[in-house]
């Protein structure tokens, strides 16, 4: 196994409600990623559907065995693919889901657990909350998935890393809010600081795939990137434009970071277990 992996991040601008067009874009970026020698390519949250779906949710929802989803899974025969869409379950519940596909198979499905329903966000009105936080094995290592708002709740990276994750994939559809100047957004600054903190605190690589473009006047800024376990950005995409970002990641950096700063090793789960039953949520 090579210690160095090449990871591609597809910072795309999905067309709202147009699964066919977005599917074509996905396959184009998958081919580009393979040409760049990438072992993994990561797409943003709801890259197949667009974000501000509202009543389009029923139209764009796909089951895991849908031919559109199967076409991307089949494309993972020689490159691992992280992609996101509205998943319809057998019970006809609807989730914002992200799939990790490898060698032509679905390896893992994460259903977004934290649905923002405040300010400009109204997700819980249209989709269902996921309820599981589980890492998965990918390329002989353990990884975890968080979809956008999931990463704004420290329970998610904590649970994933305490279960063995050494890499965190974060597909997102984060708009640019609190504009400071032409290339600086409050949300961009927050994401950068948050992901750097997680990378250092838990000793992991973090892959952030945020979309770009406009929907109903909402601007999605991009700013995707890869952070190393020392908190440094290995690679960063630009703001406002589509881009295929390619980064080379040395998985041995996790070993080094967790030895020199053993914060995760020294976590005391028994303290959590002792106090959580007594927390009053009312």
Question: How would you sum up this structure in a few lines?
Answer:
The chain is of the alpha/beta class.
Could you characterize the architecture of this molecule?
The protein has 282 residues and is α/β, with parallel strands linked by helices. The protein has one domain (4-278): Carbon-nitrogen hydrolase (Nitrilase/N-carbamoyl-D-aminoacid amidohydrolase), CATH 3.60.110. The chain contains 7 helices and 16 strands. It has helices at residues 19-35, 57-60, 67-75, 155-162, 186-202, 252-260, 269-275; strands at 4-11, 40-42, 80-88, 94-102, 105-111, 136-138, 141-145, 167-172, 179-181, 184-185, 205-210, 212-215, 218-221, 225-227, 233-236, 243-250. Strands 5-4-3-2-1-16 form a 6-stranded mixed β-sheet. A 6-stranded mixed β-sheet has the order 6-7-8-11-14-15, covered by helices on one side. The protein is globular, with a radius of gyration of 18 Å.
């Amino acid at each position: 196994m090579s210690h160095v992996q090449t990871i591609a991040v597809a910072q795309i601008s999905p067309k709202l409600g147009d699964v066919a067009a977005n599917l074509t874009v996905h396959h184009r970026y998958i081919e580009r990623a393979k040409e760049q020698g990438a072992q993994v390519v990561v797409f943003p949250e709801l890259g197949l559907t667009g974000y501000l779906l509202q009543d389009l949710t029923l139209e764009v929802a796909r089951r895991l065995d849908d031919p559109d989803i199967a076409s991307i899974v089949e494309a993972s025969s020689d490159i691992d693919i992280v992609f996101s869409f509205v998943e319809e379950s057998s019970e006809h519940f609807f989730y914002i889901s992200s799939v990790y596909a490898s060698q032509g198979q679905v390896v893992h499905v994460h259903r977004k657990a934290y649905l923002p329903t405040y300010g400009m966000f109204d997700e819980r009105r249209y989709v269902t909350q996921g309820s599981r936080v589980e890492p998965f094995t990918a390329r002989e290592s353990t990884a975890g998935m968080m979809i956008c708002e999931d990463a704004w709740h420290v329970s998610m990276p904590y649970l994933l890393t305490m279960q063995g994750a050494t890499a965190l994939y974060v597909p997102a559809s984060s708009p640019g809010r609190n504009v400071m100047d032409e290339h600086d957004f409050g949300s961009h600054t927050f994401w950068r600081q948050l992901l750097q903190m997680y990378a250092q605190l838990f000793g992991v690589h973090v892959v952030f795939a945020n979309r770009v473009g406009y929907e109903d006047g909402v601007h999605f800024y991009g700013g995707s990137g890869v952070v190393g376990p020392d908190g440094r950005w290995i690679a960063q995409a630009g703001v406002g434009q589509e881009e295929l970002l390619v980064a080379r990641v040395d998985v041995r950096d996790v070993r080094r970071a967790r030895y020199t700063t053993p914060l995760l090793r020294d976590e005391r789960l028994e303290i959590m277990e002792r106090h959580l039953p007594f927390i009053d949520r009312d």
